[in-house]
Amino acid sequence: RPGVLGIRREDKNKWERRSPLAPRHVRALVGQGLKVIVQPSTRRVFTDHEYEEAGAIIQEDLTECAAIAAVKEVPIDLLLPNRTWIFFSHTIKAQPAGMPLLDAALEKKVRLVDYECITETGQRGGPRLVAFG
Asked: Measured between alpha carbons, how far is 105 from 103 in angstroms, rounded to an integer?
């Protein structure tokens, strides 16, 4: 549904605490009229309460979301079809481990935005604008 953004809980590694958006970003998006749904997480660097205070809805189900942001690769079985997904997919350099994910994205008609491809110049190989540390 247009105007609904999801934030996926990171679960690839038990130590992963990063989030693609901070509560202050969620507040700005909600202020612009977007609905933001955040999957609950006890490990994320920001608490569910902080996201709620920023105007997000905390819930497991992201099926309402037109776009879903994450940090790490999304397991193929959790890749909701016909959505825009934003995450590090590790597919641009044709890394063998990422090819099944790319095939699934094509099959599921996913619009994939790979952070690695967002560059200062808009050109492949240009200085990246997105990094998580």
From this structure: 5
